[in-house]
Amino acid sequence: MTFLHILWFKNLMFWKVSSKRDVGMVVRNVGSFIVFGSFAVGSFYFSNFITAYLLENVRIGLFLFHRFIGMLLFVFFVTINLGNMVVSFSTLYRSPEVDFLLTSPVSYLNIFVIKFLDNFFYSSGTLFMVGFSVLLGYGYYFNLPWHFYLLMMFGVLVPFMFLAACIAVIVLLLLMKLASKVNFRLLISGIVLFYISQIYFYFQVSSPVHLVQEVMKYYPYVDLYFGTLDPMAVKILPNFWVSEIMYFYVTNNFTAVTGYTSLLVLSTAGLFIFALAIADAVFYSTWITSLTIKSLTIKSLEFKNSIFSFGKRSFFSPQVEVILKKEFWQFIREPSQWIHFVVMMALLLIFLSSVSSLNIKLETPELKAVVYLVVFIFNIFLINSLALRFGFPMMSLEGNAFWTIRSTPVTAAKVYWIKFTVVVVFLGILSIIISWLSNIPYLYIRKVVGEQPWMYSFIEPSDTVKLLSYSSMIVTPLITITLVSLNFGLGSVYSNFIEKNPIRIASSQGATMTFLLSVVYLVFLLGVYYFPATMLFTAEMKELQPDWRMLKIIFFAIGFPSVVIIAISHTVGIRSLKRDY
For a Cys staple, 461 with which of 115, 260, 315, 465, CB 3.0–4.6 Å? Predict the structure, then answer.
């Protein structure tokens, strides 16, 4: 039996025997099955509804619809790429298991392969389920045959995600190789700036505003193929290939489907082989380099005169002060934490800079409502992503040292509330800023571009649209508190004091179920907000007075369930800390 077989067998045995066979575990497994199944069914109906609504009600046409899918896939691709890069850094260079395996008579390439594949499959199970559910809803609308789903799942989606992972690990290996000659912080800054510039360049080249304006010139013939509008730089990207596969499958152009699928699969296979070749040449030497980087990182954090040093007193009580400072240093000392945080914040700033300068002229209130709701829900989704990534693992990161906290004269509930306050205050302030920036086009006079670049006009939003914006800005902090409570509370329920990697904790089964529950909450918000948004944009077009009663209904419809979710989340979260660890 080879070394790879032994490690795979170990992983399988872990899944088989690691869970305790008690009533609580059975209840949690049944609950997880119900949540996962319900989310899969909900994803199917939501995907089917969105497809039907955009094509039949809004009538954006097949070409625009699939180009928007391509833009979402680009964000999806970058997210997978960055996530795999950060996780691979922790797994390949900071894992005690790798340190042990490197002392055994096993080739470095085998160790690299098994850890790389472990990272990929560990974090991809939920994405497969969600992707398959969304594809079912999409395919059901177009009445596509069974082989469409097989092709998309195993011939398109899996290679697409694996390609992102391969690029991530190649970039990581090259960075670690350069780290022996170039300052590591300079390299990190360079790679962050590189990704930011690439994302900015992509949305500048393939501007959705420009695309909508050009296609709508041919209305109602929007189902035609406007391939000449696609910039050449975009056509070499994998997300473009996937959107083309879906478009040509719907339009029965199977020759193009075969060509783009072959291009995607061959590119993925080639990059995987290239990644193996690089790993075989530099993995061990880069691991040696990582030891030097680790020692330098530890030395650089010795700020004796900093206000966050434990020798400095603050106006907080000693117990609160020491916990707050511990949280700060626990976050800073782990590169995967602050690197991932910087990257996510950079992506957030790019999105907000694009939304705050939105100048597209839309004719129908339905399309205006769709654009507004997409931006609103995406803002909330970003906040939830930060809460899941950094809030969910906070209790688990105490590790075995949680016994120390339990033995000190500090209640577990106090530690819980201090940690929660740190997350909710930061994300609460961030949510207010995000909400204000995204509502700038609906609050202030803006320049709207016409059919030609030199044709523009200045439009002042009506009082009805301003009312909708103010309502969103008021309700967003409450939604943020709800999502942080859900992620933090269930993060305590599904705490894992053995796992030291925060990214793997945020990708565990408990985190996945928490994410699915939060998405259900987001869909609920979308349903509550859709009718009043459409009504207010219709009132704007007809120059009617806004209906204040509808906004009161919105606040009650969102407020009551949110308060219930907050109460339940904290109740189960605090009770979970009383378990025997």
Answer: 465
